[in-house]
Amino acid sequence: MSMAVMKPGLFTTVQDRGRPGWRSLGVTAGGAMDSYALRAANLLTGNLPEAAGLEMTLSGAELEVREDLLIAITGANMTPSADGEELPMWRPVWVRRGTCLKFGTAVEGCRTYLSAAGGIEVPEVLSSRGTDVRAGFGGLEGRPLMAGDLLTTGLTEPWRSQWAVRWAEKLRRQAAAEGRRWAVPSWYALPEAYAGGGRIAGHHVLRVTAGAEYSSFTKASLEVFFSTSYLVSSSSDRMGCRLTEGAKLERTASGEVLSRGIVPGTVQVPPGGQPIVLGADCQTTGGYPVMAHVISADLPLLAQLKPGDKVCFTETGLEEAHAALVRQEAALRMLEAGLCARLP
Amino acid sequence: MSIPIPQITPLGDSGLLLLFDNSGEAAAAARCLNGAKPDWLLDAVPAYAALSVVYEPYRLNRLLRSGRLRLPDNHGQEGLLHAAAESAVLQMLGSNEWKGLSEQGRVVQVPVVYGGSGGPDLGSCAARAEMRPEQFIEAHAAAVYTVAMIGFMPGFPYMTGLPERLAQPRREAPRQRVPAGSIAVAGNQTGIYPFDSPGGWQIIGRTALQLFNLGTGSPTLLQAGDNVRFIPVQSSQAGWEEVSGR
After folding, report:
1. Chain B partners within 8 Å of A126 (Cβ)
2. What is the domain count for chain A?
3. How far is B98 from chain A (nearest CA, A)?
4. Can you give the pTM of this predicted structure?
């Protein structure tokens, strides 16, 4: 066993890229809410993109390291520490067995990712190791972590990555020389997925494209939607980010909308008139009017919004949305190339 | 059979919403796309006459750059990748013979113990329809239903074809726990709960069939486009024997 869970944190699950491909049968795609952060963490530990890691929410876990590990921590800053010493994020970290990893409350962002070389080993269910808590499968028995859980990583098997082996060895020697239980390189990856549409006076700006019922909302409601500074509600979760404090959004058409397939990022407006932005665990179909869609490149930013944060929307086109996504993908590929070049 | 041309709009930057004339076309198109499944295509989700297609823009971009995709000269204001997705989907639908469309959908028989502890709302439903419970059962079991979509939870079928006089309002207060296998009606639809879950539909019976099972080939008993017949049985055991040949 590579890690023992001493405290699970508020809501910690095993997540990977999720299980798209089964939505026509009602199975949620799921996967890491902030797929950028999990991918970066996997790159920093020499993993393939499909490896599973831990997703912690708002308040993190306490883990006892049972074997020497190469890990990486990305996403929200939960002031992670190893035996009380603060650990840097967005870079590989070698930790010696017996070390206690502690994650506190998120000081910035909402979700933190922990990757370990070789990935978290749990059985694949419908081609994914990710946890679907509502359906009760995937991850650790389809549930969030509990105290007493034991996590296995690929470390017990031959590592897939020569890169991880060589960095672990180099950092192990560095730790010994420094007389510490952990070591990190001096370089780090730059998180590049959280700019969104910029920040205006402390508000995060999510870029959206028009949804199917966009033009059925009244002119006044469209104005409200794009000018309101919404508050992220505490009832937000992996299914959806619930927003409040906006004037009621109303449609000119009163007709009901028939259910159809929906995707993460969809901004739907239930009868209450306050928008909900769907998250990775959203249902496969929905029948609320769809105002807009948060662009894929801004889903990492959405994943990092926490209750109490202020957010507003700005409209963009598909061309710009695709360009932003291609830029984000290019940044990850640059990171990958840069890491390959840093083989010790 | 000629190819029905759907109306297509964007579903965000990684999806298309295709609107067909009826649920049969949408289900057939979903079977065609899910059967081919090129690497850039993640999901094709049919629901009534709509089909939501989810794609991976980055992979589609690669396909586009490889030159293997025919594009209309004039790709409109939605941008190149959206046009590429639209064109690739239409090409896939066009190359298919629409066998699935002309085929009579398969019929799945579902044995049901109506009423009793498994169907606590049968009496009130029958009363609203101004029928005796036996008449309600007979009418519900005489109809052939079509799965218009799977949604709400893995394997939950929304079925059309409920005789008009059996239509029911949703319960005013949803139940905290509806047991797996519960046969339910709401509005002019009928459904089956695959898992224990909260639910607001009227519960009229229960089946012993598993609607969702990870151990088998396809995890769900039903998919969109299937036809369903309910077979009244006296006990769940009898139900298994009666339909064991399905």
Report:
1. 214, 219
2. 2
3. 18
4. 0.93
